[in-house]
């Protein structure tokens, strides 16, 4: 039998704005989980969605993480520099007949869809599955999904299941604007970087079956998954740039890290609050228990 692979986790922020408390929580959990398992922790800047990427945000995120004392393994990976890898994966899926071109505009989908997807949008009814209409031009490329239940065990949320055909529909890999979709990029990167443990916000739980299916189509192993509660404001909105979540400031020392740990259900003794950063991290790695993370989907962050 092969020896077990070393644990390799990652934090993959989208640089749409400064790091806020919600992303700090995902960084802390993925970091401690990797280190507590004697593993590596890689950083990936998910700047593939060019219109959403804010100039200078990636640098700001890296400096903030450094300020909080995170130490990552290897070079930081930028998705914007890996388009060749996404292209190669798409070509494999096209050649296998798993990805197909779609000519539908939003308006056409709105006119033909009869159901909603788990994302709250319209479920694509598969209009171009059997081929493009005569004279229609491909706008996007979609992945065929099977009508079967994907069942997986999430390390925080427990058993999770989803039927891709009924709940999601054939989803986009290459968008009409020429950009690779998050679902494709994240799977290619996790596989290429040898990531075997994904720890991230529960808002991505509904993307997980899509990612497992994509991995199966490409013949790559799936990582383990742990989905954390997300931080919401008083209006119940997820902290993000759109909801004007304030930037986290590392000059406040361990204070915010302690809040992130408490948010994650980890007891923090008073003396840890007074530690210097290196001592705090040493203590936190030893004290981390993923089994204590609450299964709630959303937890209020009181600013
Ligand atoms: N880039 C995504 C985000 O910032 C995270 C993707 C992932 O962890 O799979 O929400």
Structural description of this entry:
The chain has 303 residues and is an alpha/beta fold. The protein has helices spanning 21-36, 57-67, 83-95, 106-112, 164-167, 182-192, 205-218, 255-263, 270-273, 277-287; strands at residues 8-11, 40-45, 77-78, 99-102, 140-143, 149-154, 158-163, 171-174, 197-201, 224-228, 230-232, 298-300. It is globular. The relative contact order is 0.17. The model has no long low-confidence stretch (mean pLDDT 95).
How would the blueprint of this fold be written?
Layout: E1 8-11, H1 21-36, E2 40-45, H2 57-67, E3 77-78, H3 83-95, E4 99-102, H4 106-112, E5 140-143, E6 149-154, E7 158-163, H5 164-167, E8 171-174, H6 182-192, E9 197-201, H7 205-218, E10 224-228, E11 230-232, H8 255-263, H9 270-273, H10 277-287, E12 298-300
Bound molecules: glutamic acid.
Shape field: globular
Question: What oligomeric state do the depicted chains represent?
Answer: single chain
Mean pLDDT over all positions: 95
Bound molecules: glutamic acid
CATH class categorisation of the domain at 8-78 and 224-300: Alpha Beta
- Tell me the strand order in the biggest sheet: 1-2-3
* Radius of gyration computed on alpha carbons: 20 Å
What is this structure, in a nutshell?
Helices cover 33% and strands 17% of the residues. The chain has 303 residues and is α/β, with parallel strands linked by helices.
